[in-house]
Model the fold of this input.
Amino acid sequence: MARFPLFGDSSRRIAEADSVAVIGLGRFGSSLALELMASGTEVLGIDVDEELVQSLNGQLTQVVRADSTREEVLRQLAVDEFDRVVVAIGDDVQASILTASILLQLKVPVIWAKAVSEQHGRILEQLGVHHVIFPEKDMGRRVAHLVRGAAMDYLEIERGYSLAKIAAPERFQGTPLGETTLRRTHGVTVTAFKTLEGAWQNADNQTVLSPGDRILIVGPTDRVEAFAQLP
Ligand code: ATP
Done:
């Protein structure tokens, strides 16, 4: 007996577009789903919680109340036809693992899953989930770098290698970057800059920084942090 025949048809249509299925619409899943919608991606949202589903109705391409631990339900919703599925269930580790294993069995090409602990993450990785994310741990580390340093924004691209937005240090203003020893002495590269009123532009050897400019630097995390401290 098909429980979601109508949803199945319309989610099949969503799956044909630039689309993502998001399972679990708590704070993390719903903000992810809304951000995807804002950037033009079609989103099928799934959650067992009726109230959550109601609250997101009309904001996502389609929102369905369903239990993702049941394979037939995921098939009826055509989740197996999506190229990308995010499992944003955290606290109910069993439901997260079951859902991920069904998605793997359904051969969804790219699966992202949120983990709430190291053990949870390890199991998801062992199952074969393609991308395991630790939102709270990652955000905690990012904020720690912001709190510790002078960076206005910070992203650790991979362990030990980072990107930061900082104010252009005084000693590197007024001279073309190519004529400074910035890279050799400090081990970082200035990739882009922005004047007070201007837009971001790629930086090159001819770029001359002025007071008030913002710059984007990349390099080893310790070098980026040290550079961000320069007056
Ligand atoms: P967040 O930290 O993102 O706010 P949360 O604490 O609200 O998450 P989680 O346990 O991480 O809750 O679960 C996220 C969502 O996943 C919840 O809204 C929950 O209803 C939903 N969910 C849990 N189990 C299932 C399931 N089997 N099928 C579908 N949705 C589920």
About this structure: The two ends are 69 Å apart (CA to CA). The pocket of adenosine-5'-triphosphate is lined by residues 23-29, 46-49, 52, 67-69, 88-92, 95 (CB under 6 Å). Residues 1-5 have pLDDT under 50 and may be disordered.
